[in-house]
């Protein structure tokens, strides 16, 4: 590219002419306050996304594919002006800032353990201006009267409602004047494959369309249907919230127009997302360790050869417990699993197989298209009993009765476990218990009644810590 063209796209007469908008988990242009802050501070903005191997590597293929599709859609909305670079943001962002003579970089804040460290390292080189976050209310804001954090959801939720959230920001592609990345010399632009096929439609446009469709046709049954995997009638917005192709504030604003128990229930679920982000931001260690250290005393079966065999059966959806197997196969096939079934399969891993929750959490993070550290690690710890506001350990999910209750006709199981398609109605949940041999389908790998007693015996070790 000739130097005259470069001059036209990147004015250089003042350092405040140019800035960077560094996209991370906010791959949208509507309701993005960062864009307003960037427009206030500089005439031109360079839109950047860094493909950081530290984050890309642990993501499974589905999440990576969804990310690429989101980036392609953002680039299209920006008329090809999204600069995607591969590498370490701690080197790349300050380098880009030097190249375009930007004196600051605009972001929405990241409160995760890795993101916090990364941003602190970038800030050693260039100031970051944080505007907004991926949450309705940013972690750290909701505190008790004495300034301490909530450890139980319901009072957090009450305060969250009282606190309220901002109205959506009025932004679009034209809020900023975007610098043409082609004019930034000496930078290797990552070429993204154009025709990736994510497991579900993603990108800002798809998020909005899906949300509008749910508001029109699904939201009024949310409360009644949300626990029923057979009905498959939740929003499925988690992948969009994961990549920030829609902001929860936008969703909350729309829900205000729906005065119903269902709309309130959905709002409450969005508060769980904020709650777990708050917990993880305050206790980053809890991404990998028990939040409640009493649970460090829980005997877990990690180093027996049998543990690996049980784990492999769980991962493959071949435990002989139909609802567990259906869930795991949905995960492997769709990269998504219904919330009720996430709880059932997690409980089975922890309390029937006596394996560490973090083994299951790691597998989920690899396969989920919506894999999100706070929701996942604390969803697992909720089930395992070691987290904030966790289910009491001694309340152990029975995979048979859970199946009968939440998949009453067995339709969900038959959808995902083809070997069981010929078994009619709710009978499908009890094939293993009735000793029925189904060709190709395994007998139960453990006896739930026996493992329940074993789990409760192990729990005595935790109680002794008190
Ligand atoms: C073991 C386990 C692991 C989980 N891992 C993840 C994960 O990696 N990523 C993820 O987004 N959610 C996770 N969840 C929470 C929940 O299962 C999903 O958010 C939900 O199933 C996504 O489907 P949906 O968008 O149709 O949800 P809806 O029921 O339509 O809910 C709307 C939104 O509210 C939020 N939400 C709902 N329930 C929860 C919850 N329990 N915790 C936090 N946020 C919630 C999500 O953002 C969701 O998209 C996990 C739950 C468990 C029990």
Automatic annotation (TrEMBL):
Binds 1 FAD per subunit. SUPFAM superfamilies: Cryptochrome/photolyase FAD-binding domain (SSF48173), Cryptochrome/photolyase, N-terminal domain (SSF52425). PANTHER family: CRYPTOCHROME, CRYPTOCHROME CIRCADIAN CLOCK 5 ISOFORM X1. Its cofactor is FAD. One of its GO terms (biological process) is response to light stimulus. This is Deoxyribodipyrimidine photo-lyase. One of its GO terms (molecular function) is FAD binding. Residues 17-143 form the Photolyase/cryptochrome alpha/beta domain. It comes from the Bacteria. Transmembrane segments: none annotated. Pfam families: DNA_photolyase, FAD_binding_7. It comes from Lolliginicoccus lacisalsi. Keywords: Chromophore, FAD, Flavoprotein. Belongs to the DNA photolyase family. FAD binds at residues 222, 234-238, 269-276, 370-372.
